[in-house]
Amino acid sequence: MSTQKHLTKDERRSIEVQLNQNRSFRSIARSLDKHPSTISREVQAHRISGLQKGYRRHQPNA
């Protein structure tokens, strides 16, 4: 598994796409070589209020 501290923009996009395909956190984690809890925390941090599976990747202002 990766020791990188932050997810890249491409990884976040991949999470968004795979969630829209109803893939599990474990399956997404495997495809990105990350721990499932990393995916879970990312989704929890950027969940769209009021939606059970809604997720919008973080887009920095810069």
Short description:
Helices cover 48% and strands 0% of the residues.
Given helix and strand content, the structural type is mainly alpha
Number of strands: 0
Q: What's the oligomerization state? A: single chain
Distance from N terminus to C terminus (CA atoms, Å) equals: 29 Å
* CA-based shape: globular
SS field, number of helical segments: 3
Report the C-alpha radius of gyration, rounded.
11 Å
**Share of residues in helices:** 40-55%
Q: Which ranges are low-confidence, i.e. pLDDT below 50, for 5 or more consecutive residues?
A: none
| Total discrete domains | 1
List the helices and strands and how they pair.
Elements: H1 9-20, H2 25-32, H3 36-45
Helix pairs in contact: 2-3
Commentary on this structure:
The protein is mostly helical and 62 residues long. It has one domain (7-62). The chain has three helices and no strands. It has helices at residues 9-20, 25-32, 36-45. The chain is globular and about 25 Å long. The model has no long low-confidence stretch (mean pLDDT 84).
Defining key terms:
single chain; 62 residues; mainly alpha; 3 helices
